[in-house]
Amino acid sequence: MRHIRVQQLFSSTHGAPDQIRRSLDVVIAGALLAITAPLMLLVALAIKAESPGPVLVNETCIGFGGRQFQMLKFRTLTHDPDHTLPIWAEKTTLLGEVLRFTRIEILPQLLNVLRGEMSIIDSDGRSPSFLD
């Protein structure tokens, strides 16, 4: 795996031209955001009510062409502002368990799609540690 270049990992292997793919991404992500906006607002309010800390968290990922971007997700773990807890000691909130089970935690990634950092087709961003 180490012998594969980052460009090869994220090269377009789909038959559809990139412009059509991007257009579909914008239309689908925009429609999904419009439909899920009330749900996302309720989730954001519930996260704020359940525990202190930010509503959204960022995860550094690598997209097409090896570019790094900040993937957005709803916060599902207890907030550790000083980053003193080891990863294994972080606790999932009660709401966080529901968000993970229903996959609602990833709805903010539609904003990444609109920004052109991700695609709905093959939308998984890769963690930089995956490429090491």
Q: Hey, roughly how much beta strand do the residues contain?
A: 5-15%
Q: Helix count?
A: 5
Determine the structural class based on helices, strands and strand pairing.
Answer: alpha+beta
Overall mean pLDDT stands at 81
Radius of gyration: 17 Å
- Summed up, the domain count is 1
- Biggest sheet strand order reads 1-2
Write the H/E string, N to C. Answer: HHEEHHH
Portion in helices: 40-55%
Strand elements, count: 2
**Low-confidence region ranges:** 1-11
Large-scale geometry: globular
Question: How many angstroms separate the termini?
Answer: 9 Å
Largest sheet: 2 strands, antiparallel
Kindly list the characteristics that best describe this protein.
132 residues; alpha+beta; two-stranded antiparallel ribbon; 2 strands; 42% helix; disordered N terminus
Molecular structure report:
The chain is α+β, with helices and mostly antiparallel strands and 132 residues long. The protein has one domain. It contains five helices and two strands, in the order ααββααα. Strands 1-2 form a two-stranded antiparallel sheet. Strand 1 and strand 2 (68-74) form a beta hairpin. The radius of gyration is 17 Å and the shape is globular.
